[in-house]
Design goal:
The complex is a heterodimer of chains A (about 190) and B (about 280).
Chain A lengths: L31 E4 L2 E4 H14 L3 E5 L1 H4 L6 H14 L3 E2 L23 H8 L3 E5 L3 H14 L3 E5 L10 E3 L4 H19 L1
Parallel strand pairs in A: 3-4, 3-5, 5-6, 6-7
Antiparallel strand pairs in A: 1-2, 1-7
Chain B lengths: L9 H4 L4 H9 L28 H10 L8 E5 L3 H6 L5 E4 L5 H15 L6 E7 H7 L1 H9 L5 E6 L34 H7 L4 E6 L3 H17 L3 E6 L3 H4 L6 H10 L5 E4 L1 H11 L5
Parallel strand pairs in B: 1-2, 1-3, 3-4, 4-6, 5-6
Antiparallel strand pairs in B: 5-7
Helix pairs in contact in B: 5-7
The chains are: A alpha/beta (about 190), B alpha/beta (about 280).
Bound molecules: thiamine diphosphate and iron/sulfur cluster (SF4).
């Protein structure tokens, strides 16, 4: 019997892609990260994120409720750092303020909803996206839908255990990690300009 | 819930869709609202997708505007037309599998009591007649037998509206519907009477033709459920689509029903009456 290891690659993978966890993709430990299903050192994944963002045609950040609403100490500062990072990477921002399905439909030009994230991606022709501040179960659901139906490259900057359903995922993302990623993007931009 | 939870972070405030900003500025949280304030605050996130003249949509709006403490209220819903409005209401909302609402609400109420021992958290079930009288009847009755401190509100359109017009237990005898071509062959299930004998300390039966009454009874049901025991409100919410009447007739139809088989009714237990008199006798509502 041959077993081909499952890779979390850019889609469209087709209707109902499997949960990456069910295909043996494990979550990283602190200091590690995931690139397309493989565990790598965090620094390597940050470099890969910077490369992806800076070479994207139309990158977007999707901040979730944990960053959009000022619900606890430290969130406002983190939101500021994320906005700075997005600006530096030349990415635009579309918020995910609500997880509930919205009827008749969301306005894909101004928001993204985890139940049909493909609408926002198709409408805005997004080729690389970054999830941040989205609660884990909704992020995984949306990441799977994106992998299933679009050709968008997904990146998750997760404050918790990471997202095996994203193509690149960091875990334990706090202020120091945000600062390091910002620094990498800054220096990569400098090199590109030079 | 702290009002802070719905304050946008400065970095992203300008990127939030306008309706969320309006929700923060004009939502029901900051100061208490009543039915009389409807139209002056934002109780729903977007235009709702109900049919024109939908009685359920009106019943949901009137209920939402009657909550004594919206920021500390958790609405529990289930499948059905009532779900659509709630999915966009400016409230904490939890959707349960069809019929499970009173079991889910019981668990949430107990959990909230443990998590927030010093704050009153109101758990309110807001569900259609099919969800309560048919598939969820056992779980509803058992929550009442157990004296769970939750308010149950039925938006009764006398049909499975959302799935195209099957009869529900609350459909009137003889009523012909899209998917009941021979007419229903038994009477409305007496859920209101069942509430009285199953442990509810307060019950009210109203129609959307009487918004102020809805305001009064919903508030009373929630405040009594907080301290005394389970309560039940049954609101007649006519459905123009399945009963094939013009949308502008909804209120007239509700009014007519109120003059006949859907007359206003109320019951209250001695305990609840004593508690009400002690705590809210001077209340204007
Ligand atoms: C377990 C389960 N069975 C059936 C359904 C399909 N279903 C969705 S809504 C509905 C009827 C809802 O009727 P009612 O509670 O009267 O609400 P209304 O739509 O009339 O407001 C049904 C049967 C479901 N969602 N789940
Ligand atoms: S089918 Fe009836 S209850 Fe459902 S949205 Fe339409 S009018 Fe309202």
């Amino acid at each position: 019997m041959s077993i081909t290891p499952y890779r979390v690659l850019v889609g469209p993978e087709g209707y109902l892609p499997p949960a990456a966890a069910s295909r043996g993709i494990l979550l990283p430990e602190k200091g590690e990260a995931l690139i397309e299903g493989a565990i790598v050192p965090e620094e390597e994944a940050m470099q890969a994120i910077a490369t992806k963002l800076l070479s994207a045609k139309n990158p977007f950040f999707f901040p979730g409720p944990q960053l959009l609403w000022d619900w606890k100490e430290g969130v406002a500062l983190k939101a500021q750092a994320v906005k700075k990072l997005a600006d530096l990477a030349g990415a635009r921002v579309i918020p995910m303020p609500d997880y509930r399905p919205k009827y008749p439909m969301i306005n894909p030009a101004v928001e993204i909803n985890p139940n049909h994230p493909n609408l926002t991606i198709w409408h805005n022709k997004i080729d690389v996206c970054v999830f941040i501040g989205v609660h884990c179960h909704y992020a995984n659901m949306a990441l799977k839908i994106i992998r299933g139906g679009t050709s968008c490259y997904t990146i998750a900057l997760c404050g918790e255990a990471g997202h095996e359903d994203a193509m690149i995922s960091l875990c334990c993302m706090g202020m120091p990690e945000l600062a390091r990623l910002t620094e990498i993007i800054q220096s990569m931009k400098g090199e590109q300009a030079a | 819930m702290s009002i802070k939870v719905i304050k946008p972070t400065a970095a992203f405030a300008s990127l939030l869709p306008t309706e969320y900003l309006e929700l923060v500025a004009d939502g029901p949280y900051a100061s208490p609202k009543t039915i009389n304030d409807l139209g002056t605050f934002k109780e729903i996130i977007a235009e709702h997708p109900h049919c024109a003249g939908c009685g359920v949509a009106l019943g949901v709006r009137l209920t939402v505007a009657s909550l004594p403490a919206p920021a500390d209220t958790l609405i529990v819903g289930t499948a059905g037309c009532s779900f659509f409005g709630l999915a966009q209401a400016a409230l904490n909302y939890s959707c349960s599998a069809f019929g499970n609402q009173n079991a889910v609400a019981s668990g949430l109420k107990r959990m909230l009591k443990i998590r927030y021992p010093d704050t009153d958290k109101d758990v309110v079930v807001l569900v259609g007649d099919g969800g309560i009288a048919d598939i969820g009847l056992d779980l509803t009755l058992h929550s009442w037998f157990r004296r769970e401190k939750i308010a149950t509100i039925m938006v009764d359109n006398e049909v499975y509206g959302n799935t195209g017009g099957q009869e529900s237990g609350m459909t009137q005898e003889g009523q012909v519907l899209n998917m009941a071509p021979k007419g229903k062959n038994f009477a409305k299930i007496p859920v209101f009477e069942l509430a009285r004998v199953s442990g509810c300390v307060y019950g009210a039966r109203v129609t959307v033709a009487s918004p102020k009454k809805i305001g009064r009874v919903v508030r009373k049901a929630i405040l009594l459920a907080r301290e005394v025991g389970p309560t039940y409100v049954q609101i007649y919410t006519p459905c123009p689509t399945n009963f094939k009447f013009p949308p502008q007739q909804t209120i007239n139809i509700a009014k007519k029903a109120e003059e006949g088989y859907y007359s206003f009714q109320e019951f209250i237990s001695d305990d609840a009456q004593a508690y009400w008199e002690k705590n809210f006798a001077s209340s204007t509502m």
